[in-house]
Every structure is written in structure tokens, then in C-alpha cells.
């Protein structure tokens, strides 16, 4: 029995090592790309481009459910974006708070019948459209509750431009974020079907009038952990995945899409979380099945700031939702692409990596940990092996974190102080003592929710962007 | 299960080593950046009065003097960053003055040397600066650099510098041909880059319309957008039947925007197979207020596409009393989209009631309301809503 437990425990450890090794490979691709990114971000003329009428117009879609606290600041920041031609479409998804009311009051909007909304994609019933000619590029769609995906689809139905951008109502875009993505799109408009922006944690930053004025690290524990986690996922992971055209997700918080292709794949899938991953997998499938040249890309210099959950309850709810969404996507789409040659990198690498090392990871990790605990309780003679393995895993994970910090330092330098580095380093190490395990557990609980057919979004509490300031 | 403790220790050493190296690099970059920042601040402080002098003398007739003391390489870089930033913001005589100052400071020479550097980053930085400084001497080297460059994003940075420094349209034309060679449908970016040039590109854009490469035709059509001209109709007409959507659509838009189309031609544009052209036609008539095309909008209101119908109805409401009357007629008729016409009338009246502040607008509103009542009678509900 002891041998079996030890054997399985070591297998689980090798499993984690394999994940880290694949991730290390992906980070190497990110390093390969970073000098190109640095050059193009430093020497591209964003100022002149943001005043040019040669830039394609974009419809920004903002799904809003109970967002009365943050929506005005968010809309103001979107209206003030440095972009030649864009429209902002806020879609109120049957909020139970006064989301529509605050918008009507703030922008003096008038009601119109929703006849101008096309029915390209089916959505829940639209009650009305609000508009004020003094804000010619702002539209508010009021519809019955149907979920985030349904709201995005309603926004697509109203949108008038060929590019759409999905933005969370609790996120803030940097004023040149959209133009940076547009620059990338304009280089190969036939190929880019989706481009994701870089999501950064706003907790701790000084925010004025919807603009991040002073970038600082979060003061609280959970946002700080999420910051190092996001840095690893976005800079370490997505730059690399994007370079091999294997990106499986464009964050729902900020991404730009070709509307024609989104419509061709039937729009966003409703009724379940993970619609941001779902749309990307559907786009990959569609383009590969039709032999169309395409690329799903990541634009790390286009920044969107988001408020990270700062309580275990909200974070747990978010992570369970992500776990549920991931599982649903793998069952619904991923299994058809798994190891199929026609899906190229997606079929050979991204989907297998996702299924084996993301979706199934809670099972291997939890059972592996239990096996090692069981083994340790029976016999401590193998402690040295366990300790060395654990140390390798921690060091490997930390190395990946430091790799991402190095990418940040080379190209972006948002956290210039030396003590910022040490703080991030400490939190990267501390993650292995509780936070990572909790993340795995939340994902596992998300799977249980999936099998119990739970479809609700769980706890989602929005805080104003200046919450940190108020509490300080 | 395989496990070699000795090998595991080696892995630990390697990982720890890599971590140390990476951490040292991060700290090194931070320290270097901090030092550079301090040094830059010091230079800026030392030359504060000089930069004030530059700002104050931008509109003066005399040229700007260089600082008395010779600048070190680092100081040159700081001056360059500051001056290039200003050049980017300014235009006309002020920009020329700063460019002359860059020359007098030896920055052109400095960058021409850097253009030959072995490091791509340095060459790219030099190309960027020489572009901003409109250095004509750099064009041949920049062209060579462009042709040798990888087909990545950085080629567009070099191309922009070529457009900025070009002294003849032929140089811009060559650059356009090179960028369009791969037919990546990025004609909007190519036009944006070409238009960085101070030269008149009307003739080169026209000549591109006759090129066999469809990408070049798109560049030509898109580049001419701001200079629509009815004399171009004969060159544009063949493109209306192109199989390429972008060519067809941009050619049609150019013909509409030229304002020289006959009523029959405009009706054809309102029946065009691409909805974007029909939308553009409807919007253009509303914006320009050309009343002779009112019938075209009547056709547009009955379009199968609701957006085209709405846009046409809106444009009709912008064509004065006669347009508004036609809209009312369409609303009471049994033709397609009568409801859209009716809604647009209500929206127009609502908007003009909410926004009337001048006497002219009040009079206009009452005239429109009286036309409305001729067709629909007195609508107390509508008046209350307003």
C-alpha cells in the first residue's frame, strides 16, 4: 500500500513538473517575441494614429448587470478613449439595481423603441434603446436578463462597425489601449480574427476620473497574489501561446473581434460562464475547418485595468465559475479537436494541454496530495524524496513567475521600484503555501457545480474603483 | 517509479541558478533605469533655461541657437528625445525650426551613424528619429533597411520614416509598392503611413488605380477618400463590378462622395449589392443636404436592410420641409418600412423639441409639427411626450 501511495504521489509530482516544463517552453516563446513587442510599442506612432481617419471604427460592447456603482466611471472612460471613431453600447442585462437609471440621469438619455436593433443573433427580449444626440456615440440597450453572452449578442445586433470590442463594466481601459490593438489589427486585417488585451490589477492604484494615474502594487493579500498570477498568465503565457497561434482565450475583460466571424460562428454561447474561451475555440474551429488563414493574437501593450476580488468568498465564486466554464468548453468543443491533425496547434497542443493539465489537474493534484499525506502518515522514510520534489516544484513555479517579471521589466516596467520586485517575488513563493491549493480546490468545486447543473454566477459584488482610497 | 535523488539536486541547482540570473537581470534593469532617469533629470534641470528659450523663440524670425557648451553623447540623447517629442506635436514653421535645431546640434549626423549600427533596435531608433527630423539624406539607407528588414511589425516603422523623409512622390510610390507586394489587405495602414508625407499624393494614388495588383488599387481608392473628384468617374466605374469587396465598396463610396453623380447613378448606388454602400449613400445625402437626391432616399427608406432604411429616413428628415413631408407620405403609405419612417418622424420631433434654443429652431420645429399634423392629425400623446 505504502509503495502504491508513494508511487502515485511521485506520479502526481511528475505531472506538475510536466506542466511547469511545458509552461517554461511557452515562456521561452514569449521571450522570443518580447524584443519585437518592445520595438513596435516604442516606435509606433500611436498619437498620430489615434487622430487618423484611416483607422477602422470599433463598436465597444459593455454588458452590465447590477453595475450602478462603476458604470458611469467606466462609460466616461470609454467615451474619452483616444480613438478616431468608436461607439459605446452598454447592454443592461435586466439588472435589479438602478444601472439604467443612473445612466439615463447622467447622460440625459431618451427612450426609443428598439426597432433599429437587428436580429442577427437571437437574444432575450430587448425592452428599449436609450440615446442622447449630445452623446452621439453612446447607446444603452435595456433588455431582459439573459446572461453576459446574451448581452454581448444584443450589443452585436445593434453595433454598426465591423470590429467589436467586449469590455467588462468593472474594467477601465487605458486611453490608448484600443488604438494599440487597432495598430496590430491594421497590419494584417485578413488574418486577425480576435486580439486580446492585457488585463492588469487596479487594486492599490490611484484612479481619477476613470483613469489610472499612479500605478502601485495592491496592499491586500488576495489582489497581490492575483497580480503575480495575472502577470504570469498574460505575459508569460499568452505572448507565447499567441506566437504559435495556440491562444485558447481572449479575456472577457477586454478583447477586439472581427464581427463577421463572430456572427458566422453564431455569436457568444449563452447560459454558461466561460463564454470568452468558448468564442475563441469556436473561431479556431471555424477558421481551421474552412481552411481560412487566421490568427488569434495577444497585444500586451493594450492595457485594461480591473478590480480583483479581495475576499475569499468572491474570489472563490469567480474561480469556481472559471472551473465550470473550462469544463463545459472542453466537453462542448475541446473533445472534438483533441489530437485531430486538422486542428493543427490547437488540436495537438493547446486543447490536449488544457484538458490534461488544466481541466483534469484538480483530480491529479488533489489525489496526489492525499496519496503523499497517506504515505507520510504510514512511513516517513521517503521524506527526503518528497521534500526534494516539493522544492523542485516550488522553485520551478517561482522561476516561471520570475520569468514573467523579467518580461514585464524588459518591455513595460509598470512597477519600477526595486522593492516592488521583491514584494512580487515574495508573493510568488508564498502562493505555493495555501493559495495554489485553494485555487485547485475551487476549480474542483466548480466541476461539482457543473455536474450538479448549477448555472448561476454565484457571488459577484462590485466595488467602486476608489474603494481603496475610501478605506485608507 | 523512477527517481534519482542526485539528478534532482542538479535540477535544483539549475533552477536556483536560473532564478538568480533572472533576478539579477531584473534588478540590473531597474538600477540602470533609475540611474538613467536621474541623469536625464539632471540634464533637463541644467538646460531648463535653454528649453524655455526654445519654447519662447518658436515663433520668432531668427533661427534657434545651439547651447554654448558642447553636448555629451548622453546629453544629445536627452535633447533628441525632448525635441523629437515636440516635433511630433508641432507643424509648419515651428516644426521646421526645431528640425533645423536638430541639424545644428549634430543630431542628424549622430543618427545617420546609428543607422549603420549592428543592433536592429539602434537602427530602428535612428530611423524613427530621422523620420521625425525629415532627413532627406536618410531615404536611400532607409529604403535599403526596409527591403532587408524581416516582414514583421518593424517594417511599418521604417516605412513611416521613409514617408516622412521622402522628397519625391516616386520614393513614396516605391515604398507603397513594396508594402503592398504581399497583398495582406492592409491598405488602410499603408495609406496612413503614406499620408505621413508632406508631399501631394493625389497623382500617385490615381496612378495606383490602374495597377494590376488589387492591393495597390485599394491603396489608391482609400487614399483618394479625402479628395473625391467627379473627373475620376471614368477610372472608378470599372471597379464597381470588381469581385473584391473592398475595391467595389471604396470605388462606389468615392463616386458618391464626389457629388458629381447623376440621379440615375445615385439610384444605382442605393440599389448596390453591398449594404455599406447603400448606408454611405443615405448618410452622405443627409449630411450634404443635396435635395435633388431626395428620390434616392425614398428608395432607401424601402430598403430590405433596416439600418439602410433608418439612415435614409433620418437623412430625409434632414432635407428640410420637403424631405420631412416625403417622410410623412412614406409613413402613411402601404410601402415597406412605413413604421420605420413613422418612428423616425417621432424621433426627429422629439429631438428637435428637446434641443430648440434658438428662434430658428423653434420655427423649424413648429413648421415640421404642422406638416406632421397634416398627415396624422393632432397627436396629444406625442406633444405631451415632448
Automatic annotation (TrEMBL), chain A:
<dbReference type="InterPro" id="IPR001173">
    <property type="entry name" value="Glyco_trans_2-like"/>
</dbReference>
<feature type="transmembrane region" description="Helical">
    <location>
        <begin position="345"/>
        <end position="365"/>
    </location>
</feature>
<feature type="domain" description="Glycosyltransferase 2-like">
    <location>
        <begin position="59"/>
        <end position="201"/>
    </location>
</feature>
<keyword id="KW-0472">Membrane</keyword>
<feature type="transmembrane region" description="Helical">
    <location>
        <begin position="424"/>
        <end position="445"/>
    </location>
</feature>
<keyword id="KW-0808">Transferase</keyword>
<keyword id="KW-0328">Glycosyltransferase</keyword>
<dbReference type="InterPro" id="IPR029044">
    <property type="entry name" value="Nucleotide-diphossugar_trans"/>
</dbReference>
<keyword id="KW-1133">Transmembrane helix</keyword>
<dbReference type="Pfam" id="PF03142">
    <property type="entry name" value="Chitin_synth_2"/>
</dbReference>
<feature type="transmembrane region" description="Helical">
    <location>
        <begin position="385"/>
        <end position="412"/>
    </location>
</feature>
<keyword id="KW-0812">Transmembrane</keyword>
<feature type="transmembrane region" description="Helical">
    <location>
        <begin position="6"/>
        <end position="31"/>
    </location>
</feature>
<protein>
    <submittedName>
        <fullName>Glycosyltransferase</fullName>
    </submittedName>
</protein>
<comment type="similarity">
    <text>Belongs to the glycosyltransferase 2 family.</text>
</comment>
<dbReference type="GO" id="GO:0016757">
    <property type="term" value="F:glycosyltransferase activity"/>
</dbReference>
<dbReference type="Pfam" id="PF00535">
    <property type="entry name" value="Glycos_transf_2"/>
</dbReference>
UniProtKB/TrEMBL annotation, chain B:
<keyword id="KW-0472">Membrane</keyword>
<feature type="transmembrane region" description="Helical">
    <location>
        <begin position="7"/>
        <end position="29"/>
    </location>
</feature>
<dbReference type="InterPro" id="IPR004155">
    <property type="entry name" value="PBS_lyase_HEAT"/>
</dbReference>
<protein>
    <recommendedName>
        <fullName>HEAT repeat protein</fullName>
    </recommendedName>
</protein>
<dbReference type="InterPro" id="IPR011989">
    <property type="entry name" value="ARM-like"/>
</dbReference>
<dbReference type="InterPro" id="IPR016024">
    <property type="entry name" value="ARM-type_fold"/>
</dbReference>
<dbReference type="Pfam" id="PF03130">
    <property type="entry name" value="HEAT_PBS"/>
</dbReference>
<keyword id="KW-0812">Transmembrane</keyword>
<keyword id="KW-1133">Transmembrane helix</keyword>
